[in-house]
């Protein structure tokens, strides 16, 4: 069903895992896809998979921490494919496991910088053009530690909580101009990131719950997030802009609950009980 025809979509971290699934799903619905990541071979493969199915995709290797590189890539996407309608920030890093005094401080900071600064750079670059056209949607992926403590994943958690608040702030800045921002938690998906947690000494020591969850068959398919984000692109959940949606959500139930979610001001970062 080609109901995203005419949509130009940017998917970061699109070379594998959840990002590849997001890119493939949107392309099958008719969107033209710009696939971004640092590893050229992986995004080339995603783009080739899309074109083999008759879709349109181009691969753009980029370091999202590099602001000028991001600006240059978005300019090239605009020239190659057209103005961006949908930005999906799926990229992420999580390599610092353990109490903060056990973590390599440079790796801890790299997790934060890649996750949060990368999102800032892409949104800062894409939003003004969207606002000039009066339309656009931005989806930022969050995850473990966004709304709860994550003692042995403090860098990742801090970055994801930061992305959540950034998404709320961005949406409150741009919604009146027709540009809406959403946070999406894909759930626990078996990816190269979780494999690192499963197969390294630090991961096994400090994050043993991950293995237990997979042993208990808690493994959300990446297609859940892909389908949800496609519905966001269609405008189905515009009323929930600035809030967090989850890959595990029943989308029909979520749609029915939208008024209650907004009225109760849930699916957002809030401190209660403080005057």
Task: Walk me through the structure.
By secondary structure, the protein is α/β, with parallel strands linked by helices. The protein has a single domain (8-263), classed as 3-Layer(aba) Sandwich (Rossmann fold), CATH 3.40.50. It has 11 helices and 7 strands. It has a 7-stranded parallel beta sheet, sandwiched between helices. The radius of gyration is 18 Å and the shape is globular. This is NAD(P)-dependent dehydrogenase (Short-subunit alcohol dehydrogenase family).
Global geometry: globular
**Computed Rg:** 18 Å
Number of domains: 1
Q: How do the strands of the widest beta sheet line up side by side?
A: 3-2-1-4-5-6-7
CATH fourth-tier homologous superfamily: NAD(P)-binding Rossmann-like Domain
CATH class: Alpha Beta
Structural class: alpha/beta
Low-confidence parts lasting 5 or more residues at pLDDT below 50?
A: none
> What share of residues is helical?
40-55%
Largest sheet: 7 strands, parallel
Fold-level CATH name: Rossmann fold
What proportion strand?
A: 5-15%
The count of helical stretches stands at 11
Written as H for each helix and E for each strand, in order along the chain, the element string is EHEHEHEHEHEHHHHEHH
CATH architect. name:
3-Layer(aba) Sandwich
- Compute the separation of the termini in Å: 50 Å
Mean pLDDT: 93
The total count of strands amounts to 7
Can you summarize this structure?
With 275 residues, the chain is α/β, with parallel strands linked by helices. It contains eleven helices and seven strands. Helix 1 links the parallel strand 1 and strand 2 (32-37).
């Amino acid at each position: 069903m080609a109901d995203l025809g005419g949509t130009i979509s940017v998917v970061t971290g699109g070379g594998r895992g959840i990002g590849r699934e997001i890119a493939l799903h949107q392309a099958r619905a008719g969107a033209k896809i710009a696939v971004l990541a640092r590893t050229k071979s992986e995004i080339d493969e995603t783009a080739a998979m899309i074109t083999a199915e008759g879709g349109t995709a181009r691969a753009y290797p980029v370091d999202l921490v590099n602001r000028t590189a991001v600006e240059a890539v978005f300019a090239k996407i605009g020239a190659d494919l057209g103005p961006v309608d949908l930005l999906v920030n799926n990229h992420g890093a999580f390599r610092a496991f353990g109490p903060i005094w056990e973590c390599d401080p440079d790796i801890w900071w790299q997790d934060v910088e890649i996750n949060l600064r990368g999102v800032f750079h892409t949104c800062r670059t894409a939003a003004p053009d969207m606002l000039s056209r009066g339309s656009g949607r931005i989806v930022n992926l969050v995850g473990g530690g966004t709304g709860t403590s994550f003692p042995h994943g403090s860098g990742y958690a801090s970055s994801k909580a930061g992305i959540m608040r950034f998404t709320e702030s961005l949406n409150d800045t741009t919604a009146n101009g027709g540009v809406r921002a959403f946070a999406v938690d894909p759930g626990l998906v078996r990816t190269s990131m979780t494999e690192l947690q499963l197969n390294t000494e630090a991961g096994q020591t400090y994050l043993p719950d991950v293995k237990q969850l997979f042993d208990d068959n808690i493994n959300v398919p990446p297609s859940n997030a892909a389908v949800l984000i496609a519905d966001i692109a269609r405008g189905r959940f515009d009323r929930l802009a600035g809030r967090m949606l989850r890959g595990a959500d029943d989308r029909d139930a979520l749609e029915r609950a939208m008024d209650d979610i907004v009225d109760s001001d849930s699916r957002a970062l809030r401190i209660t009980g403080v005057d």
